[in-house]
Amino acid sequence: MQGGWVKRISPEGIAAILFGILYIALPTKMFYIDGVYYAEHLENIPFHVNGFHPHHLLYLPVMHFLYDAFHTVIPHLRAMTFLLVFSAVCGAVTLFAFGVFLRKLGHSVFTRLSAMILLGSAYTFWHHATDANIYIPAHLLVLVVILLVFSDSFFKSKSRQILTGVLLAFAGLIHQIALVAIIPISLYIIAREGRDKFNLVLRFIVSTLLVVFIAYPTVFATYHGDVSPTTANFFRWTGAFTKAPHYFSFNQEHGGGIVQTTERGHTNAFFALKPLEVILFDNTTGDNLKSRRMYHYLFVLTLFSLAYYIGVIIRTKDAGRKSAGMFILFLFMTYFILTAVFMPENHFYRIFYLPALIAIWAGSISSLPKEYRTVLKPLLVIALFAFFISNFTKGIYPEAKASSNPYLQMTKQIDTFATENDVVMFPLKDRYFAGIYRYFGKGDALHIQKGTFFIGIDLMYSEIGKYENETVKMLNDRYERIFATHEAFQSAISSRDDAGDIQPVIFTPNNYRLPHPKFMVVRPNRFEFVKWHKAWYERTRREMYYMEVEVE
Q1: Are 508 and 467 in contact (CB under 8 A)?
Q2: 167 close to 149: Cβ distance less than 8 angstroms
Q3: Tens digits of per-residue pLDDT, 191-231?
Q4: What is the 3-state secondary structure (H, E, C) of 443-508?
Q5: Cis amide prior to 515 (ω within 30 degrees)
Q6: What is the pTM of this model?
Q7: Of 347, 342, 338, which Cα lies nearest the Cα of 272?
Q8: 265 and 344 Cβ atoms separated by less than 8 Å
Q9: How far is CA 43 from CA 328, 444, 513, 526, in A?
Q10: Cα separation, 79 vs 197, whole angstroms
């Protein structure tokens, strides 16, 4: 009886379950900063307090609901553990959805499983399936939408078209980048149905955008009403994290321009050529001279396979296969162009085009004559095995060890003299360290932000006095001792504006444990040095001084 139950599981299901077990068994210890913030928020902050991030509007509220439900059943469940398991499950389900999509395209079992292994072993997908982050769940929803669009019922039912649009809107409210899928999906509908069915694609587009255009103003008016809910502030809020010049590939800070940065981001989406800590700890691009040839090879292979696949589509006479091939091409090109222009070295966003690119490779191989495919089969098995082992040994397994994250080790050192009643202040560049210590350490943590800009809202200097008094009272009432790293202390006393006057110290209040003022501000002359402690960690090659200070 058990054997019969096992036989009913599809090959895609078996592969997805095996990857899911692997993802759960080896969660990363190289947490990306966002995941640490999410875990802190779920445990210590109500969902409506700084919980509606403009670029992933509903993610934290939804995760609050799910975590609270599980936490009720498992009282000692930590939010980080919950998020890691949630990502792993979403990663496995995403692989299964990808396999089902390939089955709809008519690929063989071997091709489907090979493509699933390639996606599941790709470094950026694998890492985020083991991290507490947002990209895998958002992409899973996009794949579900694609599967719905590829079903015959979508084209026959008006309600199905509207519901599919609403689901894509929800994916976009989990992460904005998911909304970009509206472009290739709409083009696919037109390519398949023709212009005479324009009302069908219009129904899908309107239902998607209507939900988004209702959700954003509603949330802004409801939860930001005390900060002048004007049109200008609304647009500052919605685009608050897209204004930095270094986010765009044509900015000189990226060094090398659009081609080199795209090559790096594209290659690192597949291969663990550099450890994630390069981005987290060293504040560098992680460019490796020995890896540049790999960047070029994979980029050229991608362009070549793209050109070949376009030829396959042109030669295809079956209308259904042609429109499906055009959709895959649209999906890849839309996200590839976006990631080439916006944050090109951020390989996380490239998760959204990896399935399309792998489907292009699968389609290209499937179009080859049978004798070529016979020769390629064993070579492909060897290549996939080598690819899996390479990313496992160079990226995933080392990152699964706590010793790989130096800030987890530094947190233990701070805890030798700090207690749960203390707080440590960090400079802005160590905000990752602050987040790690706040979540995993005994005490609390703050990080200094120069200037008075908060998620699209400018704090008026006339209000600083009010918030400063509230902040000083909070610091003195809440903590027994206040520590500051040497760099944080120097940053505070050297913070000057254009006129040369010392600026107030701003503590960004996002994800900080309540209660605290809406804006936390202290002038540097309120700090008084008391004594210092010294900590050292070999991996970072940094000598850390923790100064005990008082605020008067």
Answers
A1: no
A2: no
A3: 887 666 788 899 999 999 999 999 998 888 887 655 556 67
A4: CEEEEEECCCEECCEECCHHHHHHHHHHHHHHHHHHCCEEEEEHHHHHHHHCCECCCCCECCEEEC
A5: yes
A6: 0.90
A7: 347
A8: yes
A9: 40, 14, 9, 31
A10: 47
Q: Which two three-digit tokens encode residue 260?
A: 């080199």
Instruction: Compute the distance between CA of residue 185 and CA of residue 201 in angstroms, rounded to an integer.
Output: 9
Angstrom CA distances, 397 to 32, 53, 169, stand at: 16, 32, 36
Mode of pairing for the β-strands spanning 422-426 and 444-449? parallel
CB 512 within 8 A of CB 447: no
For the stretch 436-455, pLDDT in tens is: 999 999 999 988 876 544 44
Measured torsion, CA atoms of residues 331, 334, 340, 342, in degrees rounded to the nearest 10:
-120
Q: Which two tokens stand for residue 263?
A: 């090559």
* Interatomic CA distance for residues 475 and 356, integer angstroms: 51
To the nearest 5 percent, what fractions of the chain are helix, strand and coil? Answer: 65, 10, 25
- State whether the Cα torsion 459-460-466-469 is positive or negative: positive
- Which alpha helices (DSSP H) does 224-353 contain, by range? 231-238, 257-270, 277-281, 292-315, 319-341
Question: What's the confidence (pLDDT) of residue 259?
Answer: 76
What percentage of the chain carries pLDDT values higher than 90? 45
- Whether 503 and 497 have beta carbons less than 8 Å apart is answered as yes
Class of residue 291 by CB neighbours under 10 A (exposed 0-12, middle 13-18, buried 19+):
middle
pLDDT surpasses 70 at 338: yes
Angle at 427 between CA 423 and CA 428, to 5 degrees: 115
Distance, CA of 299 to CA of 382 (rounded, Å): 21
Mean pLDDT of the chain: 84
- Residue 275 corresponds to which amino acid? P
Polymer length in residues for the chain = 552
Q: H or E stretch including 399?
A: helix 397-399
Nearest to 510 by CA among 409, 406, 428: 428
Task: With beta carbons less than 8 A apart as the criterion, state whether 400 and 130 touch.
Answer: yes
Is residue 457 very low, low, confident or very high in pLDDT (cuts 50, 70, 90)? very low
Per-residue pLDDT tens over the stretch 176-190: 999 999 999 999 998
Instruction: Please give the distance of CA 312 from its chain centroid, rounded to a whole number.
Output: 34
Count of beta carbons in the 10 Å neighbourhood of residue 198: 12
Beta bridge partner(s), residue 536: 543
- Tell me the C-alpha distance between 487 and 510, whole Å: 21
Single-letter amino acid code for the residue at 319: A
